[in-house]
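Could you join me in thinking about how sequence relates to backbone shape in a protein? We need material for that, and I hope you will provide a protein of your own picking. Once you have written the record down, we can walk along the chain together:

…
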Amino acid sequence: MRHSTRALALIAAAPLALGALGACSKDEVPGGTTGTTKAAAAGSSTTAAGPGTTMKDSTKGTGATGTSMKDSAGTTVVATPMGKVKLSIVTTPYGKAVGGPNGKVLYAWDEESKGGNAIKCTGPCLDKWPPVYADAVEAGEGLNATQYSVITRPDGKKQAAVNGRALYEMKDDTPGTADCQGLAGWYIVNPDGTKNDKTA
């Protein structure tokens, strides 16, 4: 009986895991408690926030959403930037949407927005879905500043949110793309703060 209960629990958890890792990109392989990333092209070394830890910068140019790095054990760590993040309106194949400071479109996740906005993208999920880390949020032209805030993640880090919903990037998107729109519960946000329901 105990084995049957455990099997049912694993089956129930499967959709959540698939939603976190998604189906819109096939080249990530989760691992550890925070996932892993592809090898760094630049391979530059930098010192982490923790004492005596050396990391390899694996996503140069991610701007205010945080730089994803690998520590000496191969675990992905996201360095949290300080200060204010400015959001703006960007153009995507699905219309105008909320974008981050580097021009990439931002997403929210149904698993969180339907669950009282509780953070569920943790662990390996963060490798593919870097949070928009921020101490404060500035709403650019055309965005309603009252809809944007900073929330606290389970690990204590601060993250930008719209109407209480945490905002994320998709790691492999580039400015002008929204490759995960409507997949596994991830969606881009319209400039008025509502969910974009369009699909390809």
Q: What stands out?
A: The chain has three helices and twelve strands. The first strand starts at residue 45 and ends at 47.
